[in-house]
Amino acid sequence: MQSIQATSYPIHFNENGYEALNFHLKENKYSNLFIIVDSNTNEFCLPTFLPLLETDLTIEIVEFEAGEHNKNIETCVQIWNVLTELGADRKTLIINLGGGVVTDLGGFVASTFKRGIDFIHIPTTLLAMVDASVGGKNGVDLGNLKNQIGVINTPKMVLIDTQYLEKLPQNEMRSGLAEMLKHGLIYDKMYWEQFLDLKLIDFADFDSLIYRSVEIKNEIVTQDPSEKNIRKSLNFGHTLGHAIESYFLENENKTTLLHGEAIAIGMILESYISMSKKLIDQDDYLQIKSSLKSIYDDVIFEENDIEPILELLIHDKKNEYGNIQFALIEGIGKIKINQSVENELILAAFEDYKSS
């Protein structure tokens, strides 16, 4: 597949990516190479990746325990200390090999170590391929609050190799699929319609669907790298979805939700709000709701869950001057940003979700 050119870096696919990576290593005089992995990618992905590297550089592997709960500043401090102890300098290259937690955290570590060193993302989950690794956002959670600390800083390249998906659990595949569905809902109605019946999808050609999803995100980010305008459209489903994800992450009585599972709920809720504001009609809403509910299991919300979720909205990064800002769909394939939503409407959306 042809590489995609982002604003200041290329996105390569499959075998072309390793050619580009090895050429980059040859052309740049790096002092050493650090590969950041989590415990999963160290076991399942690193053995595939290392033989494809062509370099005489000293390679150090830095591993941290997998899981969203480790995407925090404490893990960053541990990695910064390891980098220092093992002689990383301004000419060190970091490769982040892993899912969204690894690319988010690893990009932040690289962007802040010695005021910034080069890094490359190699996403190994569907979510990271179509979302987390593309666009230059790097950061960590603050307690249970998602992505509160971070920077926008681009890698030298992103290398997407879909062979890593062969070992990915089905629930992780569904998690990544949520972001692909979002890209259709906010930007490309024909793309959304390809997912209406998953039984008809030719998964032998799934690479082309991944490619289109990356293309959509890159087209949006290229127009608005610093999220002042149209890039906010990528937050559809995330205002409520992130609050739900955070609440389930901190509540020991709840089963932690994967990112895409929470975002799928957020998209249903925010589609209901879009319908209530007459931005989409009821048929579109019912199509979205039934499609997402056919893929993702229903999540039970008790009466005492909703108020804490609403309180978490206060910390959403899109809020301005104390007002909660939503990105809502205006017809499938279109978006309307900077929308204020009353609590009563949010409560009605939860009631509708729970009722069917």
State the main characteristics:
356 residues, alpha/beta, Rossmann fold, Dehydroquinate synthase-like, alpha domain, 4-stranded parallel beta sheet, 3-stranded mixed beta sheet, 14 helices, nucleotide-binding, metal-binding, NAD
Q: Could you walk me through the main structural features you see in this protein, from its secondary elements to its overall organization?
A:
- Catalyzes the conversion of 3-deoxy-D-arabino-heptulosonate 7-phosphate (DAHP) to dehydroquinate (DHQ).
- InterPro entries: Dehydroquinate_synthase (IPR050071), DHQ_synth_AroB (IPR016037), DHQ_synth_fam (IPR030963), DHQS/DOIS_N (IPR030960), DHQS_C (IPR056179).
- It is an enzyme of class 4 (lyase).
- Its cofactor is NAD(+); Co(2+); Zn(2+).
- The chain has two domains: 4-167, Rossmann fold; 170-355, Dehydroquinate synthase-like - alpha domain (Dehydroquinate synthase-like, alpha domain, Up-down Bundle), CATH 1.20.1090.
- 47% of the residues lie in helices and 17% in strands.
- It is built from 14 helices and eleven strands.
- The strands form four sheets. The chain has a four-stranded parallel sheet. The chain has a three-stranded mixed sheet with strand order 1-2-9. The chain has a two-stranded antiparallel ribbon with strand order 7-8.
- The protein starts with a strand and ends with a helix.
